[in-house]
Amino acid sequence: MGIIKGIAVTLYDKEEVGRDEFNAPVYEETPVTVENVLVTPEGDDDIVTDIQLYGKRAEYELSIPKGDTHEWQDRKVEFFGQTFHTFGAGREYIESLTPLSWNKKVKVEKIDG
After folding, report:
1. Helix H segments across the chain?
2. Distance of CA 8 to CAs 19, 21, 94, Å?
3. Over pLDDT 70: what percentage of the chain?
């Protein structure tokens, strides 16, 4: 039996650095490598549900390792040589009651370009 291991994912942390002429926030993105992230393709039923709920087509679900303190909601991520955007509220489980190494999940959609 093999050990389950995730991959390295580049997460772009956002920090508000000011406001534009319409008083909308302006952000600066900083790439951070997060190790041991599980990447799971979404099934057909999940894709249909996400389109109905969010108007977005989920490509993958990311399982985030325990102890990670990064903000994953509404962030750009890169893996498999492609760029994605996280959406939805995500899910977080009680760390001490969750087996294995991951206790958060977030869905991503593909960014064109």
Report:
1. 44-54
2. 33, 37, 23
3. 88
Q: What are 93's two structure tokens? A: 């489980």
d(CA 44, CA 63): 19
| Nearby residues of 54 by Cβ (< 8 Å), 6 or more positions away | 87, 88
Query: How does pLDDT run across 61-105, given as a tens digit for each residue?
Result: 999 999 999 999 999 999 999 999 999 878 999 999 988 999 999
For the chain, count helices (H), then strands (E).
Answer: 1, 6
52-76: b or e for each residue (b if 16 or more CB lie within 10 Å)? eeeebebbbbbbbbeeeeeebeebb
Contact 77, 85 (CB under 8 A): yes
Q: Which of 68, 8, 66 is nearest to 39 (CA)?
A: 8
Q: How far apart are the C-alpha atoms of 75 and 35, rounded to whole Å? A: 17
